[in-house]
């Protein structure tokens, strides 16, 4: 129901399910901000998340409904919220070391015998990821065949408006917690937006292993900003193991960890794993030197079944 309209400022006020929504259209970035004046602090929706929103009828309404339903479910199940973001229950955190990390889109390429030791990731383009939201309940049974998931990765790029970043981060957090309540283990994704969103890391307990996708923006000036964020995040969380989907250079590792020893496990993306037959590599950083060994050798050192 449209209550008020102020065209010069592109503001609209709606009522949706007895909640007030303030709509702001930014004509320069072609994005649509949605501020809930009741119950939740701030949501944003771009005009269609590119192509998908134009293809899906009532996309904006569907996404708001999805968030309402899932957040209500999380609160009913007493999920803790930190600074407005739901936190994955500690018992649902993935604590093992996977043999493989594969994208959800290529899940069927994983041999059946190692699916229980494989994590599915959501490092993909946003249009594909939005589809996963609306099919989440249909996919739970199949997800349980695998060892767990890497945290959802709907892009909160620092070039986006801050409200747009917040909705991406909220969607990711809700998605992860919802699956955690369904019995699926989650390896937290440490992806954040700009520095104003760093409080999201407060939802991750100290000394928790985390993952970062290092494929996008690798030739962009934004790459160094992401490396800087990873430095801040690892200092705060202090993971025993940092999992990387993609690659980190020695220079990046030196900058991120300095003199702090760290174990980093690098998993190749689907293209390099299949085409170039690359395998996961464990990088041990002692504060001065790097030592690289195959994942299989590292697991033998730890004991093949340790933490799995």
The number of helical elements comes to: 9
Roughly how much helix do the residues carry, as a percent range?
25-40%
Overall morphology: globular
Structural class: alpha/beta
Oligomer: single chain
- N-to-C series of helices and strands: EEEEEHHEEEEHHEHEEHEHEHEEH
First-to-last CA distance: 52 Å
Radius of gyration: 20 Å
What is the strand arrangement across the widest sheet?
Answer: 1-2-3-4-5
Major sheet summary line: 5 strands, antiparallel
Number of domain units: 2
Strand content: 15-25%
| Strand segment count | 16
Low-confidence stretches: 1-55
Mean pLDDT: 81
Task: Give a description of the structure.
- With 308 residues, the chain is an alpha/beta fold.
- The chain has 2 domains: 2-76, no CATH class; 81-302.
- The protein is 32% helix and 24% strand.
- The protein contains 9 helices and 16 strands.
- The strands form 4 sheets. It has a 5-stranded antiparallel sheet with strand order 1-2-3-4-5.
- Strand 13, helix 7 and strand 14 (262-267) form a beta-alpha-beta unit.
- The longest helix is centred in the middle third of the chain and has 20 residues, at 162-181.
């Amino acid at each position: 129901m449209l209550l008020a309209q102020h065209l010069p400022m592109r503001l609209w006020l709606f009522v949706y399910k007895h909640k007030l929504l303030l709509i702001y259209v930014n004509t320069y970035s072609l994005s649509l901000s949605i501020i809930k004046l009741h119950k939740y602090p701030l949501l944003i929706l771009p005009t269609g998340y590119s192509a998908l929103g134009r293809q899906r009828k009532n996309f904006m309404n569907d996404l708001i409904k999805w968030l309402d339903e899932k957040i209500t479910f999380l609160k009913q199940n007493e999920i803790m919220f930190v600074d407005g973001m739901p936190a994955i229950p500690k018992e649902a955190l993935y604590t093992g070391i996977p043999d493989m990390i594969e994208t959800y889109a290529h899940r069927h390429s994983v041999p059946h015998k190692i699916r229980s030791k494989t994590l599915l990731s959501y490092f993909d383009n946003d249009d594909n990821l939005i589809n996963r939201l609306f099919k989440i309940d249909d996919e739970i049974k199949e997800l349980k065949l695998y060892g767990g998931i890497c945290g959802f990765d709907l892009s909160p790029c620092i070039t986006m408006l801050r409200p747009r970043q917040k909705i991406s981060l909220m969607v990711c957090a809700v998605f992860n917690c919802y699956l955690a309540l369904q019995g699926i283990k989650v390896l937290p994704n440490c992806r954040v937006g700009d520095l104003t969103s760093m409080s999201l890391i407060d939802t991750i307990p100290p000394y928790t292993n985390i993952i970062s996708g290092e494929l996008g923006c690798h030739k962009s000036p934004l790459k160094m900003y992401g490396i800087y964020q990873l430095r801040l995040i690892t200092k705060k969380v202090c993971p025993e193991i940092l999992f990387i989907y993609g690659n980190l250079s020695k220079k990046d590792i030196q900058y991120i960890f300095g003199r702090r020893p760290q174990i980093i496990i690098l998993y190749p993306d689907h293209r390099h794993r299949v085409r170039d037959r690359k395998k996961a590599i464990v990088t041990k950083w002692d504060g001065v030197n790097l030592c690289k060994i195959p994942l299989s050798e590292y697991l033998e050192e730890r004991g093949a079944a340790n933490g799995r």
